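Hey, quick one: can you model this chain's 3D structure?
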Amino acid sequence: MIIGAYGHLGRIVMRAAIKRGHDVVGIAHRQHPQLKQPQVIIKDMRDLGQDDFVGVDAVVDAVGAWTPATEVVHYEGLEHVVSLLQGTPIHYLKVGAASTLFINSAHTHVLQELPHYYPDYMQDLCAAHAEGLAILQTYTTVNWTYVTPTYNFDPDGNSTGQYHVTGDEFKPAHSQDPDDGRQDYISYADYGKGLLDIIENKSYYHQQITLFSGNNPHPQQRY
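Sure thing. Here's the predicted structure for all 223 residues.
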């Protein structure tokens, strides 16, 4: 199941999963007439019930919400879904936010705190993602993985088929200017490959991990 199936990332993951031989059902909160697909159910994720997960092995929560009116879905929707998955073998993978990554070894500071990386107008969204992660970490009877793309997450970048997996820490540029960052880039296509590999390998349960592929090919561009 892919929640957010009509989003840019959701569509990429859905196509890749089908190509790899998976049976896929998508969830979208509204219809997109130009993107009709028979495998997509129109339903708000907060209205899903246990019957919707019959026969499902993994859930990719790729829901996108960017405004104060909608971003609550990153924790309200998350909590609703994982509460239904308790005690089941279903793997829940949340597409996370780099803002939640720790920037020091003591794990007392996160990337959200650096204003050049996350200016004031992004703080509400960062807080919504942080709340979602905190909720997820309380669910010990759910096979969850919080899969964070690194800071520069490119919707239109090339598919290289290559990516690296690291943990819940991020090394910002010494200057604290993202233009000077290193190892902070991944395309949606390569991230999607990583998600599907994790599902197929049944790996990284109860962990926050980060996927990255290398340096930003356009250092002054944000995605």
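One thing worth noting: The mean pLDDT is 96.
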